[in-house]
Design goal:
GO cellular component, one term (chains A, B): cytosol
Oligomer: homodimer
Largest interface: A-B, 113 and 113 residues
InterPro entries (chains A, B): ThiC, ThiC/Bza_core_dom, ThiC/BzaA/B
Number of strands of chain A: 13
Keywords (chains A, B): 4Fe-4S, Iron, Iron-sulfur, Lyase, Metal-binding, S-adenosyl-L-methionine, Thiamine biosynthesis, Zinc
GO molecular function (chains A, B): 4 iron, 4 sulfur cluster binding; phosphomethylpyrimidine synthase activity; zinc ion binding
Distance between the termini of chain A: 75 Å
Strand order of the largest sheet of chain A: 6-7-8-9-10-11-12-13
Cofactor (chains A, B): [4Fe-4S] cluster
Number of domains of chain A: 3
Largest sheet of chain A: 8 strands, parallel, barrel
CATH topology of the largest domain in chain A: TIM Barrel
CATH superfamily of the largest domain in chain A: Radical SAM ThiC family, central domain
Chain lengths: 515, 515
């Protein structure tokens, strides 16, 4: 199914600078192999980076069969979630993996998962998964959306997007396919993904009834949930908070209901003159999720679609319901995160996380951007990463990326890259602001390389080494320019960093004179 | 000097959607022609936008002779600045122009300029200028840096960068040339610029002595200031706050002194064992500025060059000196703004504007970014526009753009465009957050077009219509797709906005049933 030529192009360039893949073993579970990227700089110092690239950066393997299955499947485990084990104080391989990966004490992981303030999305059937943790006390994570649409894309294109997403640092990936072959695409994405995969199951349910809302019902949805859980999907977005009574106020907005799942459920309620079946069957949904340990991502079906509609009655009414549903899910030990907007101007951002943390009892927040202005279609990775950085600083746990194509078309793999780079910037800026241990060391290592004119180190340490190198080489491609104490921005005479070295020398000299 | 073929390429594409240039006349000064862009949308509503593009979007003229001289030169005016007139309560053409352009009362302009909380940079010799106002109570402005370096660029390239800067909305432009023919390039930039032009005169002074700091002195600098003021430069960056006693602490930093002007002055102090001559001759500098009404932009020569060095002793020691110099300049009626950093993590941003407003008595703040992380060379327009948006919201008046080439090479015109778009996003997001009258109307007009599937309106209203259109057309190029109630992102069945219209119809129907 996959062309052989693909294998050779995966991660074959210098995306990760001169990083070398290393593994740390578990202590309790010695078979665990927790990956990191280790960079050796030209001054012989080393620098370690969190790694999400899976076996793709390890060694060659037959990509057609999918990734190696690194997690064991224990049949007796069904119905016992990571939250269940954490509450018992029982350490699972996933808990140890996540703790070592984040470089935090085991007890911190256990405590936060028990409280529901953190989650470890890990469907028992996703055996290719390298576990990770999501919560405000951990590194801010980035989610990348991929998936086809009825007008565009194929299985091969979607796998390429997955690879590009991993390459540029996606911590989780959602397959939002709504086009052809969505079960087959999802199967391949799961078998090829070392990171948690999320979906919005109602898309497939609607496809099953050919888009005919009149035929959509709980039984169809239930079958889809089980099919996808069996495949290994790690988290489901479920729009159970779009209550029938909220629709009228949401429909008065400038941009109505812009969540696809939200709009589907609202239309369903109106057509059937019934309450949202995801709400009325919420206990049964949780039973399915608990069985496989699928995390629920409570969808914000009524999020604003324009800054004009931000923080309105419908948005916060739904958020309160999500808080109630959180407690129901927790009673069944289902892990929960809460989705958030969307389009929010700068001065209304803080209220979102404050209300979410209060209404939803500290469950992790997962926001889409938010975009802080609506005037720049084509650049919404930028309009939204401004909001994302601030939300991350304020405590949002996962930032769902937005690509340059948002509002205009289906993202291709270059869009995936651009979206991810903008969001890795936002997440890291938030980690630094939150004082996450070790976060700023990356900035400092790069700044030090910059100040010392170690150009190759500067490129290799950057989020996108190939681009940094090519921008530099555009005007100074000569090999000796890689050791030159200046670049084309200022040239040699006006380079302030070069002048700064002269200042240091002068001061050292004048100190010598004094002695 | 300029190729004829250039004329036809200036603003000949659809950069400004289907906007039409309109003019408002002055009330007191009837000869004033204050420009705006007027867009007529497909629903026949109209939308007005601030316009910085000068005569280039008006009608054809011989670009080789420069722009028409729209300001009169009054010989009796020398030594009388906009601040002087405002203090007298005397309305100048520049004051009226700025008030109408911002759509604010004349008295607000007079009051803020009198207090020093706003400036109207307008050298009497820059007769091509279309006056504008800078201050926290007005629209947040964006500055674009252009200029050659000893390793790159020519006069023609720099003029093209100026045009691209105007095209994408630069409110002010700095010519930071340090390479060949810097006087000739500056002359052409001034004659072709409808926006205020700033420079860092010490660059030319250093060029005059062939980079030999031993020969640099006040007399040489004085000649440069007069030459540039005669040409019409509207604001000078002067690094008068880099005092000899601050150098030692700044040189201990991770990245030393990263301001070019700051590093020059620090090295000069060390070499001459004297106090910074820009500080000791500050009164004489102000006399020259007052004569032509050149605004002083007090340079932050000790700004941090990495987030590690942010908000340190050297940075704030210099800022206090800038506050003292502000009061000296104000006594001579010289208009003042204060430059700010640079590289600041999210959690240290607010302290910068708080200290600046206190130390510098409310003078407008003009920050470079700031970058909120150092890990993304090649994407520093993004790392910095996050900081810029927040600083704008908190009260910064001008955001100096950063291009993708920052730290790597001299920006070309595509970099100028990318930097400007990121910064127009930041400035507008700040205007919306500050509740600037009319700012959000732009977002709302675009969102309304989006919700109604008026694709052409959506493209035309966006910051970069050509890019928005091309992203849409990548997958749906057919003419009828411009009226389709969906795009390639979700396709017809999953378009939430289309579903939202169905919801509205259902609700309208069921309301009808009740009556």
């Amino acid at each position: 199914m996959l062309g052989d030529e693909l294998l050779s192009t995966i991660f074959s360039d210098d995306t990760h600078g001169n990083a070398e893949k290393i593994y740390q073993s578990g202590v309790l579970f010695k078979e665990l192999q927790i990956p990191q990227q280790k960079m050796t700089l030209s001054d012989q110092s080393t620098f370690l980076k969190y790694d999400v690239t899976g076996a793709y950066t390890q060694s060659e393997f037959n990509v057609q069969n999918g990734l190696p299955k690194v997690r064991a499947l224990n049949q007796k485990d069904y119905r016992k979630t990571q939250r269940y084990y954490a509450k018992q104080g029982e350490i699972t391989p996933e808990i140890e993996y996540a703790a070592i990966r984040e470089n935090v004490p085991l007890q911190q992981v256990i405590d936060k998962v028990t409280l529901g303030h953190a989650i470890i999305p890990a469907n028992k059937h996703h055996q290719e998964l390298e576990p990770m943790i999501i919560g405000r006390d951990f590194l801010v994570k980035v989610n990348a959306n991929i998936g086809n649409s009825p007008t565009s894309s194929s299985l091969q294109e979607e796998l390429e997007k997955l690879w590009w997403a991993l390459r540029y640092g996606a911590d989780t990936v959602m397959d939002l396919s709504t086009g052809k072959h969505i079960s087959a695409i999802r199967e391949q994405i799961l078998r090829h993904s070392p990171v948690p995969i999320g979906t919005v199951p109602v898309y497939q349910a609607l496809e099953k009834v050919d888009g005919n809302l009149g035929e959509l019902n709980w039984q169809i949805m239930r079958d889809v949930l089980i099919e996808q859980a069996e495949q290994g999907v790690d988290y489901f977005t479920i729009h159970a908070g779009v209550l029938r009574e909220f629709i009228s106020s949401a429909s008065e907005r400038l941009t109505g209901i812009v969540s696809r799942g939200g709009a589907i459920m609202a239309n369903w309620c109106l057509q059937h003159k019934q309450q949202n079946f995801l709400y009325t069957h919420f206990q049964e949904i949780c039973d399915i999720l608990q069985y496989y340990d699928v995390t629920i991502s409570l969808g914000d079906g009524l999020r604003p679609g324009s800054i004009k509609d931000a923080n309105d009655e419908a948005q916060f009414a739904e958020l309160k319901v999500l808080g109630e549903l959180t407690q129901i899910a927790w009673k069944k030990d289902v892990q929960v995160m809460i989705e958030g907007p969307g389009h929010i101007p700068l001065h209304k951002l803080a209220e979102n996380i404050e209300r979410q943390q209060t209404y939803c009892h500290g469950a992790p927040f997962y926001t889409l951007g938010p975009l802080v202005t609506d005037i720049a279609p084509g650049y919404d990775h930028i309009t939204s990463c401004i909001g994302a950085a601030i939300m991350g600083q304020l405590g949002t746990s996962v930032l769902c990326y937005v690509t340059p194509k948002e509002h205009l078309g289906l993202p291709n793999k270059e869009d995936v890259k651009q979206g991810l780079i903008a969001y890795k910037i936002a997440a890291h800026a938030a980690d630094v602001a939150k004082g996450h241990p070790g976060a700023q060391a990356w900035d400092d290592a790069l700044s030090s390389a910059r100040f010392d004119f170690r150009w190759e180190d500067q490129f290799n340490l950057s989020l996108d080494p190939a681009t940094a190198r090519s921008y530099h080489d555009e005007t100074l491609p000569q090999p000796n320019a890689k050791h030159a104490p200046f670049c084309a921005m200022c040239g040699p005479k006006f380079c302030s960093m070069r002048a700064s070295h002269a200042i240091k020398s002068s001061l050292a000299l004048s100190n010598d004179e004094c002695t």
